[in-house]
Amino acid sequence: MSHLYRRRSSSGAGKGTCLATRDGLAARRDEPSGEEQVCHGASIIGLQARRSSPETRRALEDIASRVSIIATVHSYLQLSRHDGQIDVAEYVPGLCNSLKEALCGPRAISLTSRAVAAMLPPEKALSIGLIVNELVTNAVKYAFEEGRAGKVHVDLSRENSRFLLTVSDDGRGYSPAAEASLGTRLVTTFASQLVGSATWANGPNGGCVITVAFPV
Ligand SMILES: Nc1ncnc2c1ncn2[C@@H]1O[C@H](COP(=O)(O)OP(=O)(O)O)[C@@H](O)[C@H]1O
Ligand SMILES: [Mg+2]
Fold first, then answer.
1. How many secondary structure helices (H) and strands (E) does the chain include?
2. pTM (2 decimals)?
């Protein structure tokens, strides 16, 4: 499962488009699926972004990418063979591959991921996807100076009765002066939707480590 989601074309222009890879499912129906409708919404936002000032454009691209994550979860649900549950061992790496393609372009940033084998309901998968989107986007945007190589890792593990979702990088680390903006507030909100909490820290060798802990 890859390429379900694409934020920017390889030219870097923000298009906010989802890639419709539904393996023929859509072709068998006359009406657009929920996923396709969400994709259209993201595309419209992306088109508007291209006509906007740079600041508005960035804000609209961020919105389009958040909307696209919803389409990705829909897509996993449509293809789910697990009674409406989402297999996170497949979903998290799939999402990360799509994010890498959308965000990293030719930059020497590696984005790796690993997720424990677990079935989660779609609303939890959606919160996880939205958190990963915010934190990976931040790492690619802020952790590394232009041209510098870097590593970003997404890990979803289980520790007794809780899951730990960690996004870490080996970049410049958090400056205490960094101003928490909408992205940070969204991560906190999505973590509380998982009945969990998020913590931001710098790693032992520098770089940011953000951990979201939530109950099984
Ligand atoms: N991985 C990271 N490495 C270094 N700085 C970061 C990282 N993630 C976030 N930051 C800092 O934290 C700030 C707040 O992030 P966020 O709330 O997502 O807002 P935004 O992405 O809109 O700037 C960023 O502007 C940046 O200065
Ligand atoms: Mg952000």
1. 5, 7
2. 0.83
Domain that holds residue 35: 1-79
Cα-based distances in Å from 30 to 23, 25, 27, 68, 202: 15, 11, 7, 22, 51
Both 5 and 59 in a single domain? yes
What is the average per-residue pLDDT within 131-150?
93
Pocket test for ligand 1, best of 141, 142, 166, 185 (most atoms within 8 A of CB): 142
159-195 confidence digits (pLDDT tens): 999 999 999 999 999 887 777 788 999 999 999 999 9
Tens-digit pLDDT profile for residues 18-73: 443 333 333 445 667 777 888 888 889 988 898 999 999 989 988 888 888 888 77
Instruction: Identify the CATH number of the domain in which residue 198 sits.
Output: 3.30.565.10
Pocket of ligand 1 (CB under 6 A): 138-139, 142-143, 169, 171-172, 174, 178, 180-184, 208
Considering 51, 79, 107, which residue would you say is the last residue of a domain? 79
Pocket test for ligand 1, best of 135, 138, 202, 211 (most atoms within 8 A of CB): 138
51-67 burial: b if 16+ Cβ within 10 Å, else e: eeeeeebeebbbbbbbb
User: Is 32 found in the same domain as 7?
Assistant: yes
